[in-house]
Description:
By secondary structure, the protein is of the alpha/beta class.
Amino acid sequence: MKSILRAEAVYKSYKMGKQSLSVLKGASLEIETGSLTAIVGASGSGKSTLLHILGALDKPDSGQVQFNGKDLSRFSARGLNDYRNRSVGFVFQFYHLLNELNVLENTLLPAMASSGTASYLRRKKGLQETAYALLKRLGLADRLHHRPYELSGGERQRVAIARALINKPDLLLADEPTGNLDSKTGFGILDILKELNQSGQTIIMVTHDDRIAAMAERIIRLLDGRIVSD
Length: 230
């Protein structure tokens, strides 16, 4: 199967006052198109940092990340913005929804960000139809005009998933997507991710929970910044 993403010898450290904290210590991995991969590790193992580097939310100190064979370090600032907006969808533990916007508006944000005003206005009807179809698929057809604070945790995460998918990304990156939810609601979110993967969506999910990782077809384990099993 074709590889969509490859990381080679990725190192990352952060300054902590006068000291340096090494977070990633030569992590390498390859992700196949259409796969569902779980990155597992304890708190501080570097798994979220690795995910952020794969999604170009952060840059490695050294090493290389390739998307469809192209080195992200060679992308222009605009190219990286396009990668983050169009090629990758992000789902986070704490949703990151805007309370001043309703469910439909939150879902449309990435599409709005990727278009100029005139372009968005021309595409608005079609984008709204796409957003509605996503929200309906996720069981939120009756929540379109609710604000995030009017929703349950599971509903907020489903909105976040719809938002991540609005631009039809090649890659969905989920950082502890069930970490802020009770077990029943969390496994409902996992069912959604599995269904998306079965329809062809490539997904990388970070978790500290082996029970959650077990639903993935592949598990990558991180320990102290290094991949110890794959």
